[in-house]
Amino acid sequence: MRTVLLWLALLLIPNLVFCLVADNPIDALIRSVPASLALIAALLAWTRRPAWILRLLSPFYILLPFELYYIFEFGQPTTPHILAVISESNPTEAIEYLGLLPLLTCLAIGFILFIITLSLANKAPIIPPSRHLRWLALASLAPMIQYAWLEWDWAKKKPIFDAQAAQNSLESLMTTELASPLGATLSDSYPLGVAFRVRDYLAERTRLRAASEQIKRWNFHPRRTIEENTDEVYVLVIGESSNPTHWGINGYERDTTPRLSATENLASFRNVISPFPATRLAVPVILTGNQDPLTHRAPLGQASVVSLFKQAGFKTYWISNQAPLGLHDSVISVHAYEADKVLYTNGVDYSQEGNLDDAVLPIFDRFLREPERRKFFVVHLLGSHKAYAHRYPKDFDHFLPSQKLKPFDEQIQTVINTYDNTILFTDYVLSELIQRLNARPDSQTAMIYISDHGENIPQGACTTSGHGHNNEADFRVSALTWFSNSYKSTHPDIVRRLHERIDAPLYSAGAFHTLADIAHIDHPGHNPKLSWVSEVFAPGPRWTLAVPDFDRAIRVEPCGKLKMP
């Protein structure tokens, strides 16, 4: 019997490892160990049949080495994000993501643990009744009663939170449900939390499919105004939290963009703004090129630039290093699944240290080699999102001291150094993408990069960092375009106009219309006045969440908070 108890205790090891690697070990301990320990104790006390329990829990012994590997790799238990990444990948992509050696090692160890579990189950005797067991059974009711009360209390309050979403059916589909106290409390535990992670993943996928079905009915009715006689590749790269004043190519005192500065046929824009300082609102505006006149949000249910290119005869690809599910991500994933091929390279969200943005490069290489002559890519990067030290490798720890070496150093210069290192790495990733496109000299190729929103970097008397503060830096975004020599020689006017507008007042919604013009795609909803390359480009008032007219607003020191005069 002692052997069986020790073997059951083996399932608690991921919880203990999580406590060791977590930033807050006490919180990790509370969230992980008690729930799973109570589960095992309750099963033993109420059934008295360890054989049944071992067989019931045997699949979790297969998953045990994978859970441990994930915790060591990412510093947290598995999440619905990694389930989405693996489920949306084919076997080859899954192997690339996990690595062949770790995958085979985990499979081998998991299989051995599974066989041992079944062997112990066949020999485990029934536990005889005793007074201690009865007390254990009664004690196990306490957490169950507490969890039941939490769910009952949540069930009474949840309709209040759902009322606003219920006013718009698609909004409710595209907005992640608030986690119940039970799910939020238990999801980090092992093995109990696995059930909550699978439940959350399946619920979110159901919501995404429902939203996608509505978007699939959208038809742009596109037509090509020019039919190219060669291969075509167009790329939209969406960055994250990139402040254009920290780009060397834009005049910043530091050379944070050495590769891009030396790249031919590239124009970097210094006066582009986003209407929103939040990813989930800003990215749909980029993708759809449209805003509701009342809310200024991207119209719910409208297809994106992905469908525009797809309906115009392009094979479409979405490669993302951001998370596939979650409050800030699901509304974007709805548009990702408009693409013919979708691949996520990160199993954690922005709050954790996951894969770096160069993880998209081998996937981009593979898709580029596919035989289709017309291709359109969306590449979504994590860019410069906090925590800055998580966004670049040690080789790019150029500006020192940084939070890479001093994680808790919040001095202004240390924060600036760390942020500038993220820009240096973005420079590398973008230049690598361009290099791959440039290796196709006979193709008509072009790339647009634009950050979703800006970022406040502390300086002087302003100690504010991050985004969402309604300061000027929240809305100013980095953006650039690049063209191949073949494209430039064929369409010099387009390239010339873009270079002439590097200081023009541009709006992120214009990226959609600019891509359409660059690829010679016309459609009834096209707005040439917003297109950065159009002859009839006509900048108007630039609305932001902070003020209705960004250009007329005054900046209140010390952080440049926007306010209408």
Descriptive report:
The protein has about 575 residues and is an alpha/beta fold. About 50% of the residues lie in helices and about 10% in strands. It is built from 21 helices and twelve strands. A hairpin with a 4-residue loop joins β11 (about 555) and β12 (about 560-565). α2 (about 15-20) runs parallel beside α4, α4 (about 50-75) runs antiparallel to α7 (about 100-125) and α5 (about 80-85) crosses α11 (about 190-215).
Q: What are the main properties of this structure?
A:
565 residues; alpha/beta; 2 domains; two-stranded antiparallel sheet; Alkaline Phosphatase, subunit A
Class by SSE composition: alpha/beta
**Distance between the amino and carboxyl termini:** 77 Å
Helical content (DSSP H or I, runs of 4+): 40-55%
At CATH's second level, what is the architecture of the largest domain?
Answer: 3-Layer(aba) Sandwich
Question: How many β-strand runs?
Answer: 12
CATH superfamily membership of the largest domain, which one? Alkaline Phosphatase, subunit A
**Model regions low in confidence, pLDDT < 50 over at least 5 residues:** 164-178
Helix count from the secondary structure assignment:
21
How many domains is the backbone divided into?
2
Widest sheet: strand ordering:
5-4-6-2-7-8-3-9
Shape: elongated
CATH fold annotation of the largest domain: Alkaline Phosphatase, subunit A
User: How would you sum up the major sheet?
Assistant: 8 strands, mixed
Mean pLDDT: 87
Could you name the CATH class of the largest domain? Answer: Alpha Beta
C-alpha Rg (nearest Å): 26 Å
Percentage of residues in DSSP E strands:
5-15%
